[in-house]
## 1
Amino acid sequence: MKILKIWSIMVLAAMMMPVLTACGGDDDDNSMSFTKEMLVDEHSFWEIKDIQGNNTRLIKGATAKFYANGTCKGFDSSETYYEIKGGKLYTYYGYTMEPMFVYTLQSRHVDDYNDELTVKVDGTLDDYSTCTIIMRKNSESASLIK
């Protein structure tokens, strides 16, 4: 009888395992997705407000503007083209189409006054820097006032 009870508990535990496994979250991908609609705005640009981590090319205060045709004026002057693949933003050097950076959106905060993104940035090819930046959308008219 004791053996039957132990076997019953083991069978019940084995049956519950898939149910408990299915309830788990996907901790490996906590990122959000970039969209063209998020980045492209005729009347605004993005500015780096803060940088944390290993970085050799991006600086606080640098600005970027993204256009609907896939061109950009990036945070780094070599970034002249971009594309969004799998929710990530990839930038390229225009003359050679050499990859420059991969931007992964981690969070977004939007309210009446701000549109602010926290983004993980990974360098490509010869630039292996990794950092996290906070970038804020600014209106073109606000930049004229500065």
## 2
Amino acid sequence: MKNLFSLLLLVISLLGHSQNNDFIISLEKMDFENAKKFSDEIASTAKTKWEFLKFKEDEKKLYCRFVYIDSSLPDALKESIKTGSEVCENCLYIDYSIVYDGENKDLQIKGTKKYRFREFSGKYLDVQPAWSAYFRNGVTAEAALSNYELREYQDKSIGISYKIFKEGDTWTLHNYSNLYNYFKTH
């Protein structure tokens, strides 16, 4: 009976791991609506109450950013930041790379524009809730601070690699994944 219970726990654990991987793989090639939705979800899990401010895209650098601002700031300051006349020190930046799925430059096929989640940075209590919700399910803020192994999520068989780390006073959740071989076979 004990062995059956242990086997059941292992199967449930593997199913959860697989479902988590499916979600994480989906972050590699999102359309604009799903990238915006994921960015909104990140912002909503944070301790700070964020509101969407703007979207910036640079096609030449194949880069884009969703910007959220602390909702407690005065409206006049929010407008100054939105127009670019003020630097935003109270913003959440969620960054994506732009990829063209199916692109073949030699055959002059442009491909379909997709967004690959890259990273976001902020205070620990703004970064950790997304980490716990999407990458290390259920890991508490205290546990991730005290155990370095809980600050990374990898599945080397697929090429998934995400980490949270601290530089100065800022925490970053970064996508180090390389799913090239995975997408060649799926």
## 3
Amino acid sequence: MKRTTLRSAGITALAAVTIGVAAPTALAATEDNRRTVVAGIDDPTPEDLHVITPEEAQEAAQSLLDSDEAEVQELLQSLDTEELADLQAVAEGQSAQALQVNWGKIWKVLKKIGGFAKAVKGSYSKFKKWYNGLPWWSKALIRTATVGVQLYDVYWHFHNVGVAPEKEAAAKS
């Protein structure tokens, strides 16, 4: 055998061993762990990982529709007819089974809440501080739009993707 043949065989064997050892380790990392590392969260709280249930969304939507506070009424008037119909459907519990994550709709709702764009550009801790400082009606509106999603998912999606996927796909077309 020639020297180059032996060298190539040795490099190939070393690469195979390296991939064989590294691949299972890489595959063992879950997406939740990956996202935690990306955001710099060392110790996520249960609130960070809580998924909004249809019941919580229904309760939030009903409280918005039942409220007579001026700020809530102003918020409801800012919704277009599709958003208002979605809110009413959630409040009636009709769409609980049909609800799917729609980042486009979530984007439309979040744009109505002041400070979202600035908060999502920063770290997760700054985003969470912004969220915790919101009035109850803004949090309720977010809950109605984000059934099946964690607060952290909302941050991660818009922090890393930046826009709703539907708009991104339309821009490429």
## 4
Amino acid sequence: MRYLTQSSHHSWTFRFQFPRRVRDYFYGQFEYKYALGKVTPNEAHSKGLELEKRLVDVICSVGDPQI
């Protein structure tokens, strides 16, 4: 999954960059970062998909269908 990274300590992190046209809705932040902790690769993938879906839904609700 393109938004997941694993550190050398085996912790998983989810990172999602906001499109420029919607950054104002997120207080100027350019990315959302969330630590998933030490979970299995399957759990990380599952949680990553859930987070991605939530963020895409929010972005679409603020009026940006082009993701």
